[in-house]
Structures are given as structure tokens and as C-alpha cells.
Write a structure and sequence with these properties.
The chain is α+β, with helices and mostly antiparallel strands and about 280 residues long. It contains 9 helices and 12 strands. Strand 6 and strand 7 form a beta hairpin. The radius of gyration is 18 Å and the shape is globular. The structure holds flavin-adenine dinucleotide (FAD).
Length: about 280
């Protein structure tokens, strides 16, 4: 692994200021939550940052609170805590179910919600230092002529990665919002608009600009009469990403469907909403 400097951030503001400073100095820097995904990328020489800004040292950013008709989830809330939280189990069942089938118990005990949503693609060409693929600055997406199993069947091109997170399709089906913090302040937007298709920009997976981080997810509690489910199909039951996952929320009243959201994971470069 390339030598890097670890900096323990004490606040979101400090983390943003550090990212901005290193960006201006043309040094590479990245934030980590649990580090369960990012450190592997570093060990595999896929990313080689000069500075790693540890967010886990920011006190209190792992909250899960019921408020304003919804649940506010701090960026550092762990997948295991989301899976087991009584309010999420009762009122946001599909999120609890999705968090509970992501990765392995060990990773869920370390992995944060922000890290889960921002994790990089699990494409074997992207993850291998032997391939300088399109997403890493090369000329070719190797899935086109290579082994395209587990790659995008919807929304792909020119890169054919699939979005790997289990919680993101569930959160999009629930109509969640994401809050980001950056040099220009905070922004809140629907999570559905956070992800970027490769046809728009194949070098990024989301709208975060240099210096910006995720600080919170807000999930509205579904209206009475709503039902949903999260179903994940994978090759094996131990720590495996979805071949396809479906997150569905249907709101009905008086026997009439008022609203329906069907979102697929594992088949497209973003959580794919079947409209
Ligand atoms: C073997 C294995 C199997 C897995 N299987 C699954 C699976 O089935 N389903 C699934 O959903 N996931 C799966 N994962 C991914 C796993 O869920 C993630 O590793 C974990 O959720 C990442 O959380 P983290 O806090 O450790 O992220 P980190 O490793 O700290 O970071 C991941 C990425 O997110 C960025 N990041 C972290 N926090 C923030 C923030 N606040 N703002 C902006 N960017 C941020 C980092 O810069 C990095 O790019 C698997 C991982 C492994 C290693």
C-alpha cells in the first residue's frame, strides 16, 4: 500500500475544509467511514490517496432519530444499527431488510450508511490493478468484449458497472433525501437525483464534487396503507452483492393504488427506478 497520512476529523466542517485544502494543493484525499470498502481499494492500488480523512472520529454523527414525520440517519450510522433500530424495523421495514442483507455481519458492524451509498463499483475490471479501464482513465470498458456477467443490463454505456449498494434502492423506493456538506454549505436533494449515469459522466457515480461529503439521510415514514418489500437474489448467502434486488413501495387507499415505486439494484449503474 502506498504510504498515506491519516487525519482524524473532529467535525463535518473540518473534514470539508481539509478536503478543499488538499484539492487546492492538488493532493489526493478521500474520506472514510468504516473503511471496509475504501481500504481494500487502497490495498489493491486502485486508489492511492495522499491523505485519508477519518470521519469516524466526528462525535454524534451516527444518530438515528424519528423526527418531522420521518427518520433522520447520520452519515456514520452503521448498517447493523439501521437493521436493528426499532423504529426502522417497525416503520421502514424495507430499509431494515436491505441493510440486513448487505455484505456480512462483520462488514455491517463497521460499514456506515454513507459509505454504503458511496461505495465504488464492484466490477472485477475496475477493482483489478491489471486493467486500466475507462472508469480509471483508460480507453476501454472491458465488459464490452470481456466477461460481462454481473454487469449492467439497463442504463449502461459507455461504462457497464452496476450500482452495488443494497440500502440505496430501498431508500429510493422510500423517497429518501440526502444531505451533503461542502465548501458552499449544505444541500439537500432527493436520493434518486444523487446518482450519475455513465452516459452523463462515466468517471463518477454520484454528484459529489471535490470537498463535498454526505452528512445525513432523511427517510419519510410511508403513509398509512403503504406496503413494501426488499428482495435480493444472489449466488450465495454469504457476503455477496445482488444479481438483482427489488425494492418496492406501494401506497393504497380504499383498495386503489395511489403511488407505486419499484427500484432495482444490481442491474444498472444507478438504483434503477422502473417507472
Ligand atoms: C466482501 C464484501 C461484500 C460486500 N457485499 C455487499 C452487499 O452485498 N451489499 C452492499 O450493499 N454492500 C456490500 N459490500 C459493501 C459494504 O456494504 C461497504 O463496504 C460498506 O457499506 C461501506 O461502508 P464504510 O463506512 O466502511 O465505507 P468506506 O469504506 O469508509 O467508504 C466507502 C466509500 O464511500 C466514501 N464515503 C464514506 N463515507 C462518506 C461520506 N460521509 N461522504 C462521502 N463519501 C463517503 C469513501 O470515500 C469511499 O469511496 C460488500 C463489501 C465487501 C468488502
Amino acid at each position: 500500500m502506498k504510504t498515506f497520512e491519516n487525519i482524524d476529523a473532529k467535525s463535518v466542517k473540518e473534514a470539508v475544509a481539509l478536503l478543499q485544502k488538499f484539492h487546492q494543493q492538488k493532493k489526493s484525499a478521500s474520506v472514510v467511514g468504516g473503511g471496509s470498502e475504501y481500504l481494500q481499494l487502497m490495498k489493491d492500488h486502485v486508489v492511492e490517496p495522499d491523505y485519508v480523512i477519518n470521519l469516524k472520529t466526528i462525535p454524534g454523527l451516527d444518530y438515528i432519530k424519528e423526527e418531522r414525520g420521518g427518520v433522520r440517519i447520520g452519515a456514520l450510522a452503521k448498517l447493523a444499527d439501521i437493521e436493528e433500530h426499532p423504529v426502522i424495523r417497525e416503520k421502514l421495514v424495507i430499509l431494515s431488510d436491505a441493510a440486513g442483507v448487505a455484505a456480512s455481519p462483520q462488514i455491517r458492524n463497521a460499514g456506515t450508511i454513507a459509505g454504503n451509498i458511496c461505495q465504488r463499483p464492484f466490477c472485477w475490471y475496475f477493482r483489478s490493478s491489471s486493467f486500466n479501464c475507462l472508469r480509471k482513465g483508460g480507453q476501454v470498458c472491458y465488459t464490452v468484449t470481456g466477461d460481462g456477467r454481473f454487469h449492467a443490463i439497463l442504463g449502461g454505456g459507455p461504462s457497464y458497472i452496476v450500482h452495488p449498494s443494497d440500502t440505496a434502492p430501498a431508500l429510493v423506493a422510500l423517497g429518501a433525501q440526502i444531505k451533503t456538506a461542502g465548501p458552499a454549505g449544505e444541500k439537500t436533494l432527493p436520493l434518486e437525483k444523487f446518482f450519475v449515469l455513465p452516459s452523463v459522466d462515466y468517471k463518477r457515480e454520484n454528484i459529489l464534487n471535490p470537498g463535498e461529503i454526505v452528512s445525513e439521510i432523511y427517510v419519510p415514514i410511508p403513509k398509512p396503507g403503504s406496503k413494501g418489500f426488499y428482495h435480493k437474489v444472489r449466488e450465495r448467502l454469504a457476503w455477496d452483492h445482488a444479481i438483482v434486488a427489488i425494492a418496492t413501495m406501494v401506497e393504497s387507499a380504499g383498495g386503489v393504488v395511489r403511488d407505486a415505486r419499484v427500484v432495482m439494484g444490481g442491474v444498472a449503474p444507478i438504483p434503477w427506478r422502473g417507472k
